[in-house]
Amino acid sequence: MQESSQVSKILIVDDVQLNLDLMKDILSDQEYQIATAINGKSALAKARAHKFDLILLDVVLPDIDGFEVCSILKSNPQTQDVPIIFLTAKKEKDSIVKGFQLGAVDYIPKPFSKEELIARVNLHLTLRKTQYELINSKEMAEAAAKAKAIFLANISHEIRTPMNGIIGMIDILKRTDLTDEQHEFIDIIGISGENLLMIINDVLDFSKIEAGQVTFELIQFRLADEITEVTKILRYKATQKGLTLSFEIEHNVPEFLIGDPLRLKQVLINLCNNAIKFTPEGFVRIQVSLVEFEGEKVRLFFEVQDTGIGISAENQLKLFKSFSQADASTTRKFGGTGLGLAISKNLVQLMNGNIGIISEEGKGAIFHFDCEFGLASQAFLTFQSQELEELIIPNKKLKILLAEDNVINQKVAILISKNSDIQSLLFLMVFRLLRHF
């Protein structure tokens, strides 16, 4: 990239030596570096050998005409960005139009005046320098934004690790002998920790999406199991508000799919959590229906319906945008980062789908999205379950190796294993591992 302080380099191509000398004298006085060529082949050779900021090109040349020279230069990645001004004595409209069609930026009629030559050359060199500066600024801004996004994405482990330690130890502390007042304090700490972790996860997930670091797995899974897990995760929160949380899968929806169940659950949890947050009474329901089969692919349609406060048409336009909520009072009253729906939109698009909303203020809302999955066979998943049963041997003393580089998380894992049904814990861990192979 050329710096604006560098001297501009100009190539003049004309078969009349007198014209070459005249233009060279005029432009040399402007402190430009000038090179000349008396025919098309010489011009092409010099343009490939040197980086010019502008080419003044005569139309009529003894070997190949200026139009052909221009066409060759514009087809070469090395020279295609160099602006070309045609020098021509032809006044026909077709000739001028042809020059612009081939990529020229301007033309100077012969005979030319000194003032016109200088004015046109200065104009296009200024435009080129401005273009350089804009491109350079854009590249620097993009590089800075990418570096920031990659940094945030890469520190996700470092940020989540201490939070997991805090939340894990809070859970263990709840199982000890505490007074009612201490239990209340621990509950407050636990809720605050969970809220903080949710905010951290939103910011880090969004950063990964922005940095293009989100990856999708292609594994086999049972759709009903994944949606059941979503409802289990959120049922306590729904029950606290007196809400009914349920799901329904239409009978013609394939039972087993190939895709990324974790990303699907992430979208559903975002939408359901959002619905629970804005629903004071009534229900939140997940519905799944079949859109179409496309060969070995299937497209499904998901709806998350609630009986909440609804969203006005005006505020619906603000949804699915980064760091955006319906209005300022939403953040004050309900909290959140405003990233959940933006993350969901990006994840759905990465699954070849679209997301939207149907709502009226005061009449609840239906968030809906579609996405594409592969079709899986039940036989594979049955085989997995059979292998899993063989691995879990009842009433046998187990030896477990814990691989964890964080001392606090080591402590949390050991305490949880001592106070939990280790058989069930191991079953769950092995089941999740097997599903990813």
Report on the structure:
With 437 residues, this protein is α/β, with parallel strands linked by helices. It has 4 domains: 9-141, Response regulator (Rossmann fold); 155-210; 219-376, 2-Layer Sandwich (Heat Shock Protein 90), CATH 3.30.565; 381-434, no CATH class. 52% of the residues lie in helices and 17% in strands. The protein is built from 15 helices and 12 strands. Strands 6, 7, 8, 9, 10, 11 and 12 form a 7-stranded mixed sheet that branches. The chain has a 5-stranded parallel sheet with strand order 2-1-3-4-5, sandwiched between helices. It is elongated and about 100 Å long.
List keywords for this structure.
4 domains, disordered C terminus, alpha/beta, 7-stranded mixed beta sheet, 437 residues, elongated, Heat Shock Protein 90, Rossmann fold, 5-stranded parallel beta sheet
Summarize the entry for a quick read.
By secondary structure, this protein is α/β, with parallel strands linked by helices.
Radius of gyration: 34 Å
- Named CATH topology of the largest domain: Heat Shock Protein 90
Please identify, by name, the CATH architecture of the largest domain: 2-Layer Sandwich
Which stretches of 5+ consecutive residues score pLDDT under 50? Answer: 422-437
The biggest beta sheet reads:
7 strands, mixed
- What is the number of helices? 15
Shape designation: elongated
What is the H/E order?
EHEHEHEHEHHHEHEEHEEHHHEEHHH
Number of domains: 4
Strand percent estimate? 15-25%
CATH class of the largest domain: Alpha Beta
Helical percent range? 40-55%
Got a strand count?
A: 12
State the secondary-structure class. alpha/beta
* Terminal residue distance: 48 Å
CATH superfamily of the largest domain: Histidine kinase-like ATPase, C-terminal domain
Average predicted local confidence, pLDDT: 82
- How would you name the oligomeric state of the polypeptide chains in this document? single chain
